[in-house]
Specification:
This protein is α+β, with helices and mostly antiparallel strands. The chain is built from twelve helices and 13 strands. The strands form four sheets. The chain has a five-stranded mixed sheet, sandwiched between helices. The protein has a three-stranded antiparallel sheet with strand order 9-8-10.
Amino acid sequence: TLLSKAQILRPGGLSRDVWHWEQEGEGSIVRVSQVDATRILTACFLNEDFYDVIDIDSFGSDSRFIGSSLDAVKHDGLLYLTSTDGFSAGGHRPARSLAAYGAFVRAGLPSSNENGLRMLIGVAVREGAVRGLRVTPVFSLYSFHGPVFRTMLRVTRSSQWPHKEYGFIGYCHVHGQTSKVPWKELSGAVCTCCGLSKKGKPLSLSGPIWTGPLHDRDEVQSIADEAAARGWQGYSFDDESSQSSQNKARELRSKKNGPQRLEDVLQIMLGEADERLRPGFINMEHLGKHLLSYPPRDVLIAELRAKGFAASRSHLETKAFRTSATLQEVIAVCIGLGLKLRESSDVCKSILAP
């Protein structure tokens, strides 16, 4: 989908297998084609026919169009990308993720759905850097059905690409800790949960992928303000005041990771846009492996913030949260709330000592 503020698409250019019609009264031309998207986007670039928004709604892990779409988008324009390859995001097809996204993703990681978004952002960031473009996410959205990974990207002309946010994510299978691993620290990527320094257990690395925030706070705030001004809220039913729509809303809320109200999603995204947050999320049920019981998610988030940590809900998992604290620090906060540690827990008890 190619959208321009001035027009939808100008006449001319490719002519094979093309249909177009003019919408009466508005003077805009819509052009529909079954020509390969790469050819269309390349022709737009050669004809200097650039667009404000390009939406690449591809199936699976087809990433061939990303480079040509970056060539056809205007500077300071928007590029909307899609992937539905949950197997690659989950680390079950690392050779495919390496071919499509230039990233080797490990299996068995708790935040595989988040890694799917980070792979998609990462390949666009790298392709943009080759072209002297700075590509950063406006917002990123995961939908469990499919699954579907979507990210809206801002494309600007700059030689200063966000290379510090393009690296590796390390996961410790012993302590359940996720952390960023810069390129220069790959040789020393070990778990330091117990203060073991370079003698710790080697981390399970995935990458290179995007390691920065999934959303831009200012951009998401602008979207939230615009949605509020237009009265956009709820689940987008035609008539949410009707009894059938209210029943449907209750049904959706009862489903695990089901659709959420627009205003709730935007508020979660604002929280997730905090640059201090570690990559990945912590599932509340995972805390149950270390604690005899765990507190309500929102209570724990509030207590983490009170202790000076960044913390937020996650739009990827309803029973999860994101934080700048390590897992050891999270458990220490839980114990401070009066909860008990399991004897079988492999958490570093020395860290929890007062």
